[in-house]
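Example for tutorial group B:
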Protein backbone atom coordinates (compact mmCIF):
# COMPACT_ATOMS: atom_id res chain seq x y z
CA UNK A 1 0.00 0.00 0.00
CA UNK A 2 2.74 2.48 0.94
CA UNK A 3 4.58 1.83 -2.31
CA UNK A 4 1.38 2.32 -4.29
CA UNK A 5 0.67 5.64 -2.53
CA UNK A 6 4.19 6.86 -3.33
CA UNK A 7 3.70 5.98 -6.99
CA UNK A 8 0.38 7.79 -7.11
CA UNK A 9 1.85 10.89 -5.47
CA UNK A 10 4.72 10.94 -7.98
CA UNK A 11 2.26 10.55 -10.85
CA UNK A 12 0.13 13.39 -9.46
CA UNK A 13 2.99 15.92 -9.59
CA UNK A 14 2.98 16.51 -13.37
CA UNK A 15 -0.84 16.49 -13.36
CA UNK A 16 -0.86 19.21 -10.72
CA UNK A 17 1.56 21.41 -12.63
CA UNK A 18 -0.34 20.75 -15.86
CA UNK A 19 -3.53 22.05 -14.22
CA UNK A 20 -1.81 25.22 -13.01
CA UNK A 21 -0.27 25.88 -16.43
CA UNK A 22 -3.62 25.39 -18.17
CA UNK A 23 -5.43 27.76 -15.81
CA UNK A 24 -2.61 30.32 -16.11
CA UNK A 25 -2.96 30.24 -19.90
CA UNK A 26 -6.76 30.51 -19.81
CA UNK A 27 -6.62 33.49 -17.47
CA UNK A 28 -4.10 35.19 -19.75
CA UNK A 29 -6.27 34.52 -22.83
CA UNK A 30 -9.33 36.14 -21.23
CA UNK A 31 -10.21 39.50 -22.87
CA UNK A 32 -8.97 42.49 -20.93
CA UNK A 33 -6.77 42.46 -17.86
CA UNK A 34 -6.58 43.96 -14.40
CA UNK A 35 -5.32 47.34 -15.58
CA UNK A 36 -8.16 47.64 -18.10
CA UNK A 37 -10.73 47.18 -15.34
CA UNK A 38 -8.99 49.46 -12.84
CA UNK A 39 -8.33 52.27 -15.29
CA UNK A 40 -11.41 52.05 -17.48
CA UNK A 41 -12.36 55.50 -18.73
CA UNK A 42 -9.99 57.37 -16.39
CA UNK A 43 -6.37 56.45 -17.07
CA UNK A 44 -4.14 57.26 -20.00
CA UNK A 45 -1.97 54.82 -21.88
CA UNK A 46 1.06 55.94 -19.86
CA UNK A 47 -0.73 55.37 -16.56
CA UNK A 48 -1.96 51.97 -17.70
CA UNK A 49 1.56 50.99 -18.73
CA UNK A 50 2.82 52.06 -15.30
CA UNK A 51 0.16 49.91 -13.62
CA UNK A 52 1.14 46.91 -15.73
CA UNK A 53 4.76 47.36 -14.65
CA UNK A 54 3.74 47.72 -11.00
CA UNK A 55 1.73 44.48 -11.10
CA UNK A 56 4.35 42.65 -13.18
CA UNK A 57 1.94 42.22 -16.10
CA UNK A 58 4.46 43.64 -18.55
CA UNK A 59 6.58 40.50 -18.20
CA UNK A 60 6.26 37.59 -20.68
CA UNK A 61 3.82 34.88 -19.71
CA UNK A 62 6.48 32.21 -18.97
CA UNK A 63 8.34 34.65 -16.71
CA UNK A 64 5.17 35.46 -14.81
CA UNK A 65 4.39 31.77 -14.34
CA UNK A 66 7.91 31.01 -13.09
CA UNK A 67 7.66 33.92 -10.63
CA UNK A 68 4.32 32.64 -9.34
CA UNK A 69 5.65 29.08 -9.13
CA UNK A 70 8.69 30.22 -7.15
CA UNK A 71 6.39 31.91 -4.66
CA UNK A 72 4.29 28.74 -4.42
CA UNK A 73 7.37 26.68 -3.51
CA UNK A 74 8.00 29.13 -0.67
CA UNK A 75 4.40 28.97 0.53
CA UNK A 76 3.57 32.40 -0.90
CA UNK A 77 0.46 32.60 -3.10
CA UNK A 78 0.89 36.33 -3.61
CA UNK A 79 -1.43 39.20 -2.69
CA UNK A 80 -4.88 39.97 -3.94
CA UNK A 81 -4.98 43.07 -6.13
CA UNK A 82 -8.49 43.97 -5.03
CA UNK A 83 -8.59 42.94 -1.37
CA UNK A 84 -5.03 43.96 -0.55
CA UNK A 85 -4.54 40.76 1.52
CA UNK A 86 -2.41 37.69 1.15
CA UNK A 87 -4.19 35.11 -0.96
CA UNK A 88 -3.51 32.42 1.64
CA UNK A 89 -5.30 34.53 4.26
CA UNK A 90 -8.28 35.06 1.95
CA UNK A 91 -8.55 31.34 1.25
CA UNK A 92 -8.30 30.53 4.96
CA UNK A 93 -11.15 32.98 5.66
CA UNK A 94 -13.38 31.54 2.93
CA UNK A 95 -12.59 27.85 3.35
CA UNK A 96 -14.46 27.48 6.64
CA UNK A 97 -17.79 28.89 5.38
CA UNK A 98 -17.55 26.70 2.25
CA UNK A 99 -16.92 23.59 4.33
CA UNK A 100 -19.91 24.44 6.55
CA UNK A 101 -22.28 25.15 3.67
CA UNK A 102 -21.50 22.49 1.09
CA UNK A 103 -20.47 19.94 3.72
CA UNK A 104 -23.89 20.25 5.38
CA UNK A 105 -25.61 20.08 2.00
CA UNK A 106 -23.77 16.93 0.92
CA UNK A 107 -24.35 15.24 4.31
CA UNK A 108 -28.04 16.03 3.93
CA UNK A 109 -28.02 14.52 0.43
CA UNK A 110 -26.30 11.36 1.69
CA UNK A 111 -28.74 11.02 4.62
CA UNK A 112 -31.66 11.13 2.16
CA UNK A 113 -30.20 9.33 -0.83
CA UNK A 114 -28.62 6.22 0.71
CA UNK A 115 -31.70 4.99 2.65
CA UNK A 116 -33.97 5.79 -0.29
CA UNK A 117 -31.64 4.01 -2.70
CA UNK A 118 -31.47 0.90 -0.52
CA UNK A 119 -35.25 0.78 -0.05
CA UNK A 120 -35.85 1.33 -3.77
CA UNK A 121 -33.54 -1.59 -4.60
CA UNK A 122 -35.23 -3.76 -1.97
CA UNK A 123 -38.71 -3.14 -3.38
CA UNK A 124 -38.36 -2.57 -7.14
CA UNK A 125 -41.41 -0.99 -8.82
CA UNK A 126 -42.90 -0.30 -5.40
CA UNK A 127 -43.65 2.93 -3.54
CA UNK A 128 -40.02 3.47 -2.54
CA UNK A 129 -38.90 2.98 -6.13
CA UNK A 130 -41.38 5.59 -7.38
CA UNK A 131 -40.33 8.06 -4.69
CA UNK A 132 -36.66 7.47 -5.54
CA UNK A 133 -37.41 8.07 -9.21
CA UNK A 134 -39.17 11.32 -8.31
CA UNK A 135 -36.20 12.50 -6.23
CA UNK A 136 -33.76 11.57 -9.00
CA UNK A 137 -35.68 13.39 -11.71
CA UNK A 138 -36.38 16.51 -9.66
CA UNK A 139 -32.84 16.74 -8.30
CA UNK A 140 -31.19 16.26 -11.69
CA UNK A 141 -33.57 18.13 -13.98
CA UNK A 142 -34.35 21.28 -12.00
CA UNK A 143 -31.47 23.83 -12.06
CA UNK A 144 -30.04 24.75 -8.69
CA UNK A 145 -30.37 28.50 -9.29
CA UNK A 146 -34.10 28.06 -10.01
CA UNK A 147 -34.60 26.09 -6.79
CA UNK A 148 -32.71 28.78 -4.90
CA UNK A 149 -34.86 31.59 -6.29
CA UNK A 150 -38.08 29.69 -5.60
CA UNK A 151 -36.92 28.93 -2.04
CA UNK A 152 -36.07 32.58 -1.40
CA UNK A 153 -39.43 33.74 -2.78
CA UNK A 154 -41.40 31.20 -0.75
CA UNK A 155 -39.60 31.00 2.59
CA UNK A 156 -38.07 34.49 2.79
CA UNK A 157 -40.33 36.84 0.84
CA UNK A 158 -43.77 35.26 1.25
CA UNK A 159 -43.52 33.48 4.60
CA UNK A 160 -40.65 35.41 6.17
CA UNK A 161 -39.41 32.32 8.00
CA UNK A 162 -35.76 32.31 6.91
CA UNK A 163 -33.17 34.91 5.87
CA UNK A 164 -32.37 35.17 2.18
CA UNK A 165 -28.68 36.10 2.28
CA UNK A 166 -25.55 36.21 4.38
CA UNK A 167 -24.05 33.90 6.95
CA UNK A 168 -25.10 35.89 10.03
CA UNK A 169 -27.31 38.84 10.85
CA UNK A 170 -25.66 42.20 10.20
CA UNK A 171 -26.44 43.41 13.71
CA UNK A 172 -26.41 41.18 16.77
CA UNK A 173 -25.61 37.97 14.88
CA UNK A 174 -22.79 35.49 15.09
CA UNK A 175 -24.19 32.77 17.34
CA UNK A 176 -24.99 29.17 16.40
CA UNK A 177 -28.80 29.58 16.08
CA UNK A 178 -28.26 32.53 13.75
CA UNK A 179 -25.84 30.47 11.63
CA UNK A 180 -28.32 27.58 11.41
CA UNK A 181 -31.15 29.87 10.26
CA UNK A 182 -28.96 31.30 7.49
CA UNK A 183 -27.70 27.81 6.60
CA UNK A 184 -31.05 26.06 6.10
CA UNK A 185 -31.94 27.43 2.65
CA UNK A 186 -28.56 27.26 0.84
CA UNK A 187 -27.59 23.91 2.37
CA UNK A 188 -31.03 22.53 1.53
CA UNK A 189 -30.64 23.59 -2.12
CA UNK A 190 -27.22 21.92 -2.35
CA UNK A 191 -28.62 18.79 -0.70
CA UNK A 192 -31.59 18.55 -3.07
CA UNK A 193 -29.35 19.15 -6.10
CA UNK A 194 -27.04 16.27 -5.10
CA UNK A 195 -29.63 13.74 -3.95
CA UNK A 196 -30.33 12.46 -7.46
CA UNK A 197 -26.82 11.31 -8.38
CA UNK A 198 -26.11 9.61 -5.02
CA UNK A 199 -29.54 7.98 -4.89
CA UNK A 200 -29.27 6.65 -8.44
CA UNK A 201 -25.82 5.21 -7.76
CA UNK A 202 -26.93 3.60 -4.49
CA UNK A 203 -30.01 2.03 -6.06
CA UNK A 204 -28.22 0.65 -9.11
CA UNK A 205 -25.34 -0.72 -7.02
CA UNK A 206 -27.71 -2.49 -4.62
CA UNK A 207 -29.82 -3.88 -7.48
CA UNK A 208 -26.71 -5.47 -8.99
CA UNK A 209 -25.98 -7.49 -5.86
CA UNK A 210 -29.54 -8.33 -4.76
CA UNK A 211 -29.67 -11.29 -7.14
CA UNK A 212 -26.28 -12.74 -6.20
CA UNK A 213 -26.00 -16.25 -4.79
CA UNK A 214 -24.74 -15.17 -1.37
CA UNK A 215 -27.83 -12.94 -0.94
CA UNK A 216 -30.13 -15.91 -1.65
CA UNK A 217 -28.03 -18.05 0.69
CA UNK A 218 -28.39 -15.47 3.47
CA UNK A 219 -32.15 -15.46 2.98
CA UNK A 220 -32.25 -19.27 2.96
CA UNK A 221 -30.48 -19.30 6.33
CA UNK A 222 -33.43 -17.38 7.77
CA UNK A 223 -31.74 -14.01 8.28
CA UNK A 224 -34.07 -11.07 8.62
CA UNK A 225 -34.62 -9.12 5.42
CA UNK A 226 -33.23 -5.96 6.98
CA UNK A 227 -29.99 -7.72 7.89
CA UNK A 228 -29.72 -9.19 4.39
CA UNK A 229 -30.19 -5.80 2.73
CA UNK A 230 -27.99 -3.72 5.04
CA UNK A 231 -25.26 -6.12 6.15
CA UNK A 232 -24.83 -8.02 2.90
CA UNK A 233 -26.27 -6.13 -0.08
CA UNK A 234 -25.32 -2.59 0.95
CA UNK A 235 -21.88 -3.62 2.17
CA UNK A 236 -21.10 -5.24 -1.18
CA UNK A 237 -22.39 -2.16 -3.01
CA UNK A 238 -20.34 0.29 -0.95
CA UNK A 239 -17.56 0.88 -3.50
CA UNK A 240 -19.68 2.64 -6.16
CA UNK A 241 -21.66 4.41 -3.43
CA UNK A 242 -18.50 5.66 -1.73
CA UNK A 243 -17.15 6.76 -5.10
CA UNK A 244 -20.23 8.89 -5.66
CA UNK A 245 -20.00 10.37 -2.14
CA UNK A 246 -16.25 10.99 -2.00
CA UNK A 247 -16.18 12.69 -5.40
CA UNK A 248 -18.11 15.50 -3.72
CA UNK A 249 -15.07 16.40 -1.57
CA UNK A 250 -13.63 18.87 -4.11
CA UNK A 251 -17.10 20.38 -4.38
CA UNK A 252 -17.21 20.75 -0.60
CA UNK A 253 -13.84 22.50 -0.53
CA UNK A 254 -14.41 24.64 -3.59
CA UNK A 255 -17.91 25.63 -2.64
CA UNK A 256 -20.94 26.12 -4.84
CA UNK A 257 -20.50 29.23 -6.96
CA UNK A 258 -24.16 29.64 -7.93
CA UNK A 259 -25.62 29.02 -4.47
CA UNK A 260 -23.03 31.18 -2.74
CA UNK A 261 -23.63 34.06 -5.14
CA UNK A 262 -27.42 33.90 -4.83
CA UNK A 263 -27.42 33.63 -1.04
CA UNK A 264 -24.47 35.98 -0.48
CA UNK A 265 -22.52 33.26 1.33
CA UNK A 266 -18.85 34.23 1.89
CA UNK A 267 -17.24 31.01 0.65
CA UNK A 268 -14.68 29.84 -1.88
CA UNK A 269 -17.17 29.81 -4.73
CA UNK A 270 -18.03 33.48 -4.39
CA UNK A 271 -14.34 34.31 -3.95
CA UNK A 272 -13.48 32.54 -7.20
CA UNK A 273 -16.31 34.30 -9.04
CA UNK A 274 -15.16 37.72 -7.84
CA UNK A 275 -11.54 36.93 -8.70
CA UNK A 276 -12.37 35.83 -12.24
CA UNK A 277 -14.65 38.82 -12.80
CA UNK A 278 -12.03 41.24 -11.48
CA UNK A 279 -9.02 39.52 -13.13
CA UNK A 280 -7.50 39.01 -9.69
CA UNK A 281 -4.92 36.54 -11.03
CA UNK A 282 -3.26 35.60 -7.77
CA UNK A 283 -6.58 34.70 -6.16
CA UNK A 284 -7.62 32.65 -9.21
CA UNK A 285 -4.38 30.69 -9.09
CA UNK A 286 -4.58 30.26 -5.30
CA UNK A 287 -8.06 28.77 -5.48
CA UNK A 288 -6.91 26.61 -8.40
CA UNK A 289 -4.10 25.19 -6.28
CA UNK A 290 -6.53 24.28 -3.49
CA UNK A 291 -8.99 22.68 -5.91
CA UNK A 292 -6.31 20.74 -7.81
CA UNK A 293 -4.91 19.34 -4.57
CA UNK A 294 -8.41 18.43 -3.42
CA UNK A 295 -9.16 16.53 -6.64
CA UNK A 296 -5.85 14.66 -6.67
CA UNK A 297 -5.97 13.74 -2.98
CA UNK A 298 -9.60 12.63 -3.32
CA UNK A 299 -8.60 10.27 -6.12
CA UNK A 300 -5.90 8.81 -3.89
CA UNK A 301 -8.30 8.58 -0.95
CA UNK A 302 -10.77 6.63 -3.08
CA UNK A 303 -8.16 3.99 -3.86
CA UNK A 304 -7.18 3.69 -0.20
CA UNK A 305 -10.82 3.37 0.88
CA UNK A 306 -11.39 0.65 -1.74
CA UNK A 307 -8.68 -1.43 -0.09
CA UNK A 308 -10.41 -1.26 3.28
CA UNK A 309 -13.96 -1.79 2.01
CA UNK A 310 -13.27 -4.60 -0.46
CA UNK A 311 -10.69 -7.20 0.65
CA UNK A 312 -10.34 -8.32 -2.99
CA UNK A 313 -8.58 -5.06 -3.83
CA UNK A 314 -4.82 -5.41 -3.52
CA UNK A 315 -2.10 -2.91 -4.39
CA UNK A 316 1.01 -4.90 -3.70
CA UNK A 317 1.45 -6.08 -7.29
CA UNK A 318 1.01 -2.67 -8.82
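The residue assignment follows.
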Amino acid sequence: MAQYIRRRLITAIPVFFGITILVFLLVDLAPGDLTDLMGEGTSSTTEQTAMEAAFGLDQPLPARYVTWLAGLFHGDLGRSYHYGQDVSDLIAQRLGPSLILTGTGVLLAVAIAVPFGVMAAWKPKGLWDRLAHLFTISGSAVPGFFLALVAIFLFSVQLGWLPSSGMYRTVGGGDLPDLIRHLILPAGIIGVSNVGSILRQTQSACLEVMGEDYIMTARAKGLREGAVVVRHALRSALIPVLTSILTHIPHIIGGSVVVERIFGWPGMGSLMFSAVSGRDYNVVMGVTVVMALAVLLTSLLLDVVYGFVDPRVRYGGR
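The domain at 91-269+297-309 is CATH 1.10.3720.10 (MetI-like fold). Compare this with the pattern of hydrophobic and polar residues in the output above.
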